[in-house]
Design brief:
The complex is a heterodimer of chains A (231) and B (179).
Chain A: H1 4-8, H2 11-40, E1 47-50, H3 64-68, E2 76-84, H4 87-96, E3 101-105, H5 114-123, E4 127-131, H6 135-141, E5 163-172, H7 175-183, E6 201-211, H8 217-230
Parallel strand pairs in A: 1-2, 1-3, 3-4
Antiparallel strand pairs in A: 4-5, 5-6
Chain B: H1 2-32, E1 35-41, E2 61-66, E3 72-84, E4 97-110, E5 114-119, E6 126-134, E7 142-149, E8 152-153, H2 159-164
Antiparallel strand pairs in B: 2-5, 3-4, 3-6, 6-7, 7-8
The chains are: A alpha/beta (231), B alpha+beta (179).
């Protein structure tokens, strides 16, 4: 019987290990350069949940599988929900025009290219929902801090990550009028009309929030998200 | 001969270590790139949420209609749905309310009678809307307030109700606190 040292010093083991290393290297390269780009083209849903790959950072109730299978969701409608931890994948789907709403977990905020999100939020009516992202912070990240209009007199926000904010924004008009309104912040002005708009122009914005401490509010959250998309 | 064996032993151990490290990295990479698709279930029409105030999908909308015939310069409707604050908000008590849903629609040079519609369904709250019109550039803004609760239109609302909500009303269990 051969000793361990004999096996470890054998030529056969060298050949096996070289073969094994070649195989694992090929698998790794194939996964990196073939499978992941293929995934980038695979988003078919109109709601994408962007989350970190580190599941330890995601609260159990906010994990993709928990969220999409939550018991409070009772009737199937026409929203499809898909999770991804690859920003490249999400950006590809945004470019393709497939995404109506982007859902962001608070642990993933730093992984996002916000200039890209801002562009689609402002120009393509992308709905953005933050889970555990403070409303003022999310509005700033979207480039429109005026969207955060809290009326809570003692507002320090929610004290747990179990809450959501949904923002949507639409503006339609001639390029000249849109530029005029946006540059003078008249899009949020209420009745104080100062700019001389020359043609038909419409502006809509919406902010929704609620706590997710109550399990039933997950139903409210999804209904509001659908409403933001459809309105 | 012994030296050759020793060299091969070192080589094999190095290769073995490398193989183990690469395998672990590969497994980690595959695990990190999970990607799957799920359908989300959404409640259908006609549901009402429990709580002090109830809204259903049908008929509970804050709305604004511009009555002016002909072209209006500017029409705006801002709807707010006030709901009780959540227990995970700092300083929250049962008597405090916050705006949980706020919508703003405005249009310049609206031709004829315009209709703006704000769905406030499915939120446990009370809807108050502020309507503002400027019929011609330079004319003063006309402002009015309306509210709705349940399936009934509200008897009207005022500025205080819109900006402060029903926060001052303690232990509300029925009725419409605005105005």
């Amino acid at each position: 019987m051969r000793s361990v040292q004999q096996i470890l010093s054998s030529k056969q083991l060298t050949l096996i290990l070289v073969f094994g290393l070649s195989l694992i290297s090929l698998l790794g390269l194939g996964y990196q350069f073939l499978l992941i780009p293929a995934q980038a083209q695979s988003i078919q849903s109109n709601v994408v949940y962007f989350v970190t790959s580190d599941l330890d950072l995601i609260e159990p109730e906010l994990r993709p599988d928990s969220l999409s299978n939550h018991s409070s969701l009772v009737t199937l409608k026409d929203i499809t929900f898909e999770a991804s931890n690859e920003w490249q994948t999400v950006e590809f789907a945004l470019n393709e025009g497939k995404v109506d709403a982007l859902v962001i977990h608070h642990s993933s905020v730093d992984l996002i290219k916000w200039d890209v999100v801002q562009k689609y939020f402002e120009q393509q009516e992308l709905v953005v929902m933050g889970l555990g992202v403070p409303g003022d912070e999310l509005a700033e990240l979207l480039g429109k801090p005026q969207l955060f209009t809290s009326t809570w007199s003692a507002d320090s926000g929610y004290i747990t990550p179990y809450f959501f904010y949904i923002y949507s924004y639409q503006i339609d008009g001639t390029e000249q009028d849109v530029a005029l309104i946006q540059s003078s912040n008249q899009e949020f002005a209420g009745e104080e009309i100062k700019s001389e708009v020359q043609n038909q122009l419409s502006v809509s914005k919406r902010t929704s929030t609620d706590s997710l401490v109550y399990p039933a509010n997950f139903t409210v959250m999804f209904s509001l998200l659908e409403s933001h998309i459809n309105d | 001969m012994k030296s050759k064996k020793s060299t091969r032993l070192k080589l094999n151990l190095t290769l073995l270590s490398l193989f183990l490290v690469l395998t672990l990295l590969f497994v980690k990479q595959v695990y990190a790139n999970y990607h799957y698709q799920q359908l989300v279930l959404i409640p259908g029409a006609g549901h009402a949420m429990g709580g002090t105030y109830k809204y259903s999908n049908n008929g509970d909308n804050v709305y604004s209609i511009g009555w002016q015939a002909g072209t209006q310069y500017h029409i705006a409707v801002q709807g707010r749905v006030w709901g009780p604050c959540s227990r995970d908000m700092l300083g929250c008590t049962t008597n405090w309310w916050i705006v949980k849903d706020e919508q703003y629609h405005s249009k310049w040079w609206s031709a004829g009678t315009d209709f703006k519609y704000i769905a406030s369904h499915l939120l446990n709250g009370i809807g108050v809307a502020r309507h503002a019109y400027v019929y011609r550039p330079g004319l003063p803004t006309q402002v009015g307030y309306t509210s709705e609760n349940g399936t009934q239109g509200g008897p009207g609302a005022n500025e205080s109700c819109f900006f402060n909500g029903p926060a001052a009303s303690a232990n509300i269990i029925s009725g419409l606190p605005c105005p």
